[in-house]
Every structure is written in structure tokens, then in C-alpha cells.
Amino acid sequence: MSQETGLEVRLRVFNQDDMNRALASNRVDFFLTNPSHFLMIRSERSLTGVLATLQREWQGRSTGSIGGLILTRAERSDINRLADLRGKSIATPGIHYLGGFQAAALELRDAGVDILRHNRMVHLGNHDRVIRAVLTSDTDVGFVRTGVYENSSGKIRRWRTS
């Protein structure tokens, strides 16, 4: 980008909390984030708008949608349906992650499972920590964005939530 624009462009990688602090102190001119986080930021500060949306292709079809997965260890025979998640510990990057919390929470709510009331929620700050918590059995279940799972080791089962 520096070469194309003639301006110095420095890449910085932030988690959501650090990005929020950088935005609040005007240290960011351009950022990439998920749709849910963007809406939260837009509601708090003035933004010029969306410049681009990621499009992915699968089996010849293109989509700009984001999805979420509910994960558990493959050997967990006690977790087979959404109702089985009642009372289980759940790892999530945080409540402002569309694929890592909101998609799964909506599916569970629609299935009659109130995770905020009946589950122990563990907010870990990023998707990789969620997968690690599930693989090490620190939590029973994890919520992650679909692309994160696709890059994982395949040692966990999944349910597509949206």
C-alpha cells in the first residue's frame, strides 16, 4: 500500500480491546474488523464508512457472509445436540464477535438454551485461545468464526450455526 499510495503505511495487529483503545486515541487511520465490531465502533464514533467487504468463494459461489461454529472435543459423547450445551462451560473470544459469540448465542436462544443464565461463559479475547481451551478440556465447548476452524487441526467436532 505504501508503494501504491506514496504514503507510509504501517501494519499493526490488535485484538479488539487494543483496537478500541487505538481508535479512541486516534492512532488508526484504516482498520479491518468483523461486521459486529464495526457496528459497535460506528455507534461510538464518527466513521467515513466501509471501503471493502471480504468475499469468499466456495464451490463456485461467492459470499460476504461470516459464520460461527460451536465446537467440542470429538470424544465428548455427552454433547450431541444444542440442548446438551445447557450447563456446560463455554469459551468465546467475547460478546462482540459475530462468528465467535453472537451467531451461536442466537442459535442456542432459538433452541431454548439461555447460555447467559445457565452456562459459565469464559471470554478469552481471541479465537485461537478458544480452540486451545476446548482442546485442553479447560472448557466443554467453544464458539469460533468459521474460518478459524477451517485452519485448525481437525481434532474437534462442529455444528454450523450460520
Descriptive keywords:
single chain; 162 residues; alpha/beta; 5-stranded mixed β-sheet; disordered C terminus
Structure description:
- This protein has 162 residues and is an alpha/beta fold.
- It has 7 helices and 7 strands.
- The protein has helices at residues 2-5, 16-24, 35-44, 98-110, 115-118, 127-135, 146-150; strands at 56-58, 61-63, 68-73, 89-92, 120-123, 141-145, 156-160.
- The strands form 2 sheets. The protein has a 5-stranded mixed beta sheet with strand order 5-4-6-3-7.
- A hairpin with a 2-residue loop joins strand 1 (56-58) and strand 2 (61-63).
- The protein starts with a helix and ends with a strand.
- Mean pLDDT is 83; it is low at 158-162.
| Total DSSP E strands | 7
- Taking the alpha carbons of the first and last residues, their distance comes to 33 Å
The number of helical elements comes to 7
Stretches where pLDDT falls below 50 for ≥5 residues? 158-162
Q: Which strand-content bin applies to the residues?
A: 15-25%
Oligomer state equals: single chain
Helix content: 25-40%
SSE sequence, one letter per element: HHHEEEEHHEHEHE
- What's the overall average pLDDT, rounded? 83
Physical arrangement of strands within the biggest beta sheet: 5-4-6-3-7
User: What is the structural class?
Assistant: alpha/beta
